[in-house]
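tool_log.txt
---
The assistant was asked to compare two proteins side by side. It first ran the structure predictor on the initial sequence, then on the second. Raw inputs and outputs are pasted verbatim so the downstream comparison step can read them without reformatting.
(1)
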Amino acid sequence: MVMTPSMPPFTPPSQRPAWRSLTALAGSVPHLRELLKDPQRHQFQASAAGLTLDYTHQAVDTRILQQLCVLAEDSQLMPQAQAMFRGEPINLTEQRPALHVALRGSHLPQAPWGDDISQQVRVELTRFTAFADQVRAGGQRGFSHTPITDIVNLGIGGSDLGPRLAVDALAPWAALQTRNQVRVHFVSNLDAWNLHATLSSLNPSTTAFIVQSKSFTTPETLMLAASARHWLLAGGCPADQLSRHLIAVTARADLAQAAGYAADHTFHLWDWVGGRYSLWSAIGLPLAISLGGKAFEALLHGARAMDEHFLSAPTAHNLPVLMALLGLWNINFMGSPTHLVAPYAMSLARLPPYLQQLEMESNGKRTHIDGSTVDCQTAPVVWGGLGIEGQHAYFQLLHQGRHRVPVDFIGVRHDPTPTAWAPEQHRVVVDNLVAQRLALAQGRDSTRTHQLLRAQGMDESTVTRMVPHRTYPGNTPSSLLWLDEMTPHHLGALIALYEHKVFCQAALWGICAFDQWGVELGKTLLNSAKLPHSG
């Protein structure tokens, strides 16, 4: 909870009446195969910004949903959201706002975070999207005066995961909508093979590097940038021409320019933008180069549509709030500490690793905002991958293992792939999604399994032996997120949805979502200690 003078003293979530009511309800939830018989179950859906959340297969009923909504009210969830949008310093341990929402703009006549920030955002957005369009048009040239054809993004964490997800997710859309002769590559790992493998097929005279570091002191990124410089020099680039090939995105323009980055190749990031929330800023430059400036703005519009829905929709129809409450229910009341993300769209293959950082770095906390120890589980262990592939691997554990793993299934309704076989393949992908979701929810009890095996012609002794192996407990909860299409608008809305879900859960648990002191510990040890080395 954001602590302001107008709010009452902080109360741990487990001491709130709605939490106690939910604890009592948790022991009496029917099996999902019973819940799904309810003819009114179809009402467990909500839509916004081109996305639809179907939570009919979650292990909740109207009693539970009502108490979850009461918990959100008791936790002052929406007042905390409004404080974030006003630019209050909700990042309490660092005493600064978390204003990534300001990067998306506002339809309001006067933005709640003030005209000064709005103007700064507009200026920088215009700068980096114009630069992206210039690169796409061949206007940025290397030391040989040949247009840049390849961009290599050097960054780690939020400087890599968000832009990489978005570039990959929208590559099919971009291929159908725009012509772009510039290829975008990503290197985040300091393992030398990562950079070598990327550069081995590139030409130094037509390659530029985007060096992404908020502080411009990130050791992994700066070491990669130094290696990139060596590669350019070895490839014939004169030392006084290096700046043609180097682009910086940072909050420390002074450090970038002292290192030789030209002012017109240096783009600004503000301290009120956390790395994992920074795609909407100049950190998104690789995406703007991949898509073009107008398409990048469409991404912002999609996120802004989700922002407006989040602030205005009632709790029972609010996508981020519903996802947060359902996740909390599974973690804290149904004993499910892990969460699977299963996209059924190849373009979203990088969504699970992106969400790992967003959720676990934000909400992997053990301390309330008042310094007291959290007495319940917070962020789940997020994992996953493409669902159609997982069906032939770890889905076995979901169906018959002892772990109860809630699932986010993610599907795209319309696939515009321009091939004759695409519609049929897309239909089969969607059928697989629906079948797996239903199978995980309903399972198959021993009586039904016995009947099916006998119907297949097995003798009674074989049936008796096989029934335990061919029975499925079911009762695995899941949500299904449908995107109408995979466009910049829809991807922007999807990412903003998960951002707000994470914020809502932090508010419900009474923790700070915007610091990451655990990440800082390893950096401190690296910089200050003499570490033992093997060999």
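(2)
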Amino acid sequence: MNGDFRRQLPSMIGMASMFLVTIFLAMFIRPWYDKAGLQAFGAEGASQLRFIFLELVMIFIFTAAILALARYKKEWVIKYGIMGILFIALMYASVPLAHQILVDDTVEPFEYESTEVVEAEYLTEIGMNQYIDSVRTNENGIINNTISLKQLGMDEPIWTSVIPHGNESYELAKLVVATGPDTITINNGALIQTLSLTDGTLLSTYECFEYDEEGNIAPLVQFGCILAVETSDSVYIVDGGEKLHRFATFDEAPNVMTLQAIWQLPNEMKVVDDLVEAELLDDTHLLIVSKEMAGVVELEKNSVQIGGVGTGFQQSANVLINATSSANFSAVDVGHSNLIDEKISEATTSNQLIVLGTEDGDLMAWNYLPAEETLLVEETKLSINNFADQIRDVRLTDIDNTGYTELLITTEDEARLLYGTSMVQRLIIEVPEGENVAVAFGDTPKDVVDDTTHLHAVVIGENYSTTSGVVESSMFLSGGIVFEDIPTMIGLLVSIILMILLYVHSEWYVVNTVGILVGSGVIVMLGVSFVPTLIMIFMVAAAIYDAWAVYKSKHMLDLADTMINLNLPILLVAPQDTDYSFRAERTPASTEVSPPNLDDEESSQPRERVIKKSNDAMLMGLGDVIFPGMLVLSTLQYIGGDDGWIMAMATLVGSLVGYSILMWYVGQGKAQAGLPLLNGGAILGYVLGGFMTIGMAMFQFNISL
């Protein structure tokens, strides 16, 4: 037995080498598929379980069709049908491979041209390329805030408004802002002031304290005014105890408000030092994003209140979404959805898209549909776990002024522009370091003349600095499917030549060349189409089916026999000796892998075996390479970064361990179905790699039916 194992060792090593070459070739051509956005079921289908079931059903139908055609002696249908499928599968690899080798798709690097430091407090973003800042002054004990609305790329502010800050005891108090469709409410714990976004006009001022019967000053709410927002007929205040207070306002009595209701917000919705952003979506819904929780709060008129102001039992506020993050929310934007084929100017509804980013790189999104019965619907296409290691900013933008929006996401070290409804990554730009950063596109007067645009990176601290540079068309990555004439013709010609050789001269080196190319193409097509969790479900189901089809029903052996007898070897061949000829040997797979059934005299007899030479070879079906390879590619695609690379390599090592165990059984003459060991090893490698890097996040991909 040891001698036989040593004799088979060259075949085992050769097969392992082809196994690796096929997977690494798939990794090499993956960028072409990635840039083209070629997921089989679209980006949203990557996490939907029903498409895995569809793939399994198609495998069953294909197998049944081949066996039925063989039973009814329709071999010519099988032969030419499979040849056509192989030709298409070959082009899945040969055309992208030719493009990767021949096409120089390098882009011109982006360079920052200038940096401006502004001695002001950066308050919040407004729209796509505007923001609010503030300069505080104290002249003879009179403290004012100069509020300015500015546009990136423009030297002068759109408007400037000077508002009082309160007495000196509040001099160091921070300004907390809440934006609305047409107004912005600014609160410092002493004064609540609302300004018009159109021209900066001060619309109202309310005090956060009141006088008792003895003339002493008392806080308006028990735990202080932390966040405030004004609607058409009321002011809503969130205090430090996560209580939401509604104060009615009156047109006939400006700057006067009366308490009407109190609600309790969730404890995770902390606004003291934890507020990320607050935005009034409309008159009855307020988006609050704190570090631990994000939600849309329904601004009701009345509540059940027991006890005095700020004491006793309060009715819980109606909070929609209730999104939480253990890693903390770090970014939010609300605007016209980049996933609908409708221009901003042509929008007939007030529908909006809410996009959230977290410190550990997750994206979450909801469609806000005020005219619909269901107010908030999760946008699964943008709910992506592990998009990056960290997300610092998200911005719905319109870089090319077409009226359609794009999504600009700033990660730990770069800004990525996801273009169009397919969200193809079109632009990658390094951004400055900083815990808090806002990145957006803005046109300078020169940009308007030159038909260019600027990217502005605002690093926010005690003051803020704006670093900017010109974005040229030569800096964009190619988007969509790119077919250059020469690479496409070369890829097509290679596929035609290989198919002719496979038909007239199916020697082992031709079979292996076709097998490696076909395998790599299928690996990358399916690998980029499904998230790792679904790939693993697919692998487990396929392994169970493979074991049943080989050991129980044995129809997989009949299928392999049919393919080989029709000179359609969809497999890899590893010869044991250099003088081996695959054409001179016809070996039905049943005599190679099927264990004898001692209870069935007929099944224990080998089927037809014609050997013209004494040399032998090891055969492996392409499925044994494709399934582990799919998990490797899916990990690179959907985990990404250094963690994704480590996990992909751990998956590959795990599949090689499974392969080694499989070869040990084969070397001892114990036939085995390949997928249980190969898939099992790959899944184990993925899990171990995940625990070493991202933990349980390796399974979190928002799987849906």
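---
observation on (2): The two ends are 50 Å apart (CA to CA). Residues 306-312, 587-615 have pLDDT under 50 and may be disordered.
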